[in-house]
Each structure stands twice: as C-alpha cells, then as structure tokens.
Amino acid sequence: MEKTLKIIKELKEKKVLKDFSIGGGIAALYYIEPLLTYDLDILFIPIEDSIDILTPIYRYLKEKGFKTKGEHVLIEGIPVQFIPVYNDLVKEAVLYSDEVKYGRIKTKVLGLEYLIAVMLQTYRPKDRERLIKVLEEAKIDLKLLKKILKKYRLYDKYVQFKEMYFDTK
Amino acid sequence: MINMSNLRKCTLIQNKAIEKIIREKEQRRKKLSELSFKEKIHILVELQKMAEGVTKHGKTADRVVWYI
After folding, report:
1. Does the CB of B40 have a partner CB in chain A at under 8 Å?
2. How many domains are contained in chain A?
3. Domain boundaries, chain B
4. pTM reported for the whole predicted model
5. Is the ipTM of this complex over 0.85?
6. Are residues A34 and A82 in the same domain?
7. Which of A8, A37, A61, A103 could form a disulfide with A25 if both were Cys (CB 3.0 to 4.6 A apart)?
8. Any chain A CB within 8 A of the CB of B44?
9. Do A126 and A87 belong together in one domain?
10. B29 touches chain A (CB under 8 A)
11. Cβ contact (<8 Å) for A29 and B64?
C-alpha cells in the first residue's frame, strides 16, 4: 500500500495530475470500522481540460510497467481507479482534503464532511450503506457539514436520510 | 398450560441479552473505527481473503486480494 501511495503521489509531483485525494470505500474506511472493498478510488483534478484526461496518467503508469485490468490500474498489487472530478462538489472535496499518513507516506483523503456530501449526492445502495455507518461511527463537524450540504443543495436530502434510518425524535 | 409470568420473564431476559449483544457490537465497531489507517488496511486484506471463496455472478473479475 505504501508503494502504491508513493506512485500516486509521484503523479502529482511530476505534474501528471494537478491534485488528488482518496475517495470511495477506502476514504470511508479511514473514518469508520474496516469494510470490504476491492479498489482504491483516486479522485483527481487534471492538469488541463481535454477530452481524454486519463491518457497522461495511464501513459505514465504504463511506462513504469504497471498493467491495466478493466477500469483499474494494478499498482503494486492494488487495483486503483482514477476518477476525474466530475462536478464542483467533488472538485472542492479534493481541494479541501485532509492530509493523512500511511506509514511513512503522506497522502490525502476526502474530508469526512465532504465524503458525506459526495455519498449523499451519488446515493447508490453502497453509498447509503456506508453513510449509515459513517453517521453512526464518525465524529462529524456538524457545522461544516451543514455549510457544505446547504451550498450543494443536499441538506434536505440529508434530513430525509436521517429520518429514514435514524431515530431523530 | 403456558405460564405467562415465566414467558414474560424469559422475554425480558432475552431482551436484556440482545441489548447487551448490541451494545457490545457497537463498542467493538467504535474500537475498530479508532484503529490506525494501516491497521484498518490490514484488516481489509483479511476480509478480502475471507471473501475470496464467496463468488457473486459477474463480479469476480474485479475482486483482487490486495498485495500489501
């Protein structure tokens, strides 16, 4: 994992991408109990807008000898999926990510409150499942969460979700 | 003939036992959530190994046990 994170960090240092952050299941796992997932999602801001923003990343990694497997690149034994930021919320989430340490490597993980907002926006069954766990187990800055959710018009959805899955009375 | 008083007592004991299990599970989840990132990744890999034998139609190709 350390080697994988080092290679991903290198992509930023070598200006193959502008910025990145760990998202998805591994970001959730950072805040809650370990949960089963199989890929490492890397949300990234590309260096420049183009039709094929993944090409520079894939080219760089291919030159390093890493192979692709479906939509993943297998980096040091871990399937990594690179996801370009697809809207303003995700872009802001990457920019305001938390810097965390994994062993000796410094990396970035989506901030908890942004992660909640992204999961609420994506709202697939697995996002809802993770949301329940995150809301139960993690220490949330409710003021910051409300600010983000209001900005991206997700606050009502959050209230509905809480009413549906938690005893709010 | 069913003794209602005994039945009520049994239900109460069962409920208390279940409450205790739920409380302990919550405590365990909380403890696990406080582990370091590295420790959690190690547990994740163990979970992947455990799930290796469980196949779901069409999903197996993406399931790689991480080599860390």
Report:
1. yes
2. 2
3. 1-34, 36-68
4. 0.87
5. yes
6. yes
7. A37
8. yes
9. no
10. yes
11. no
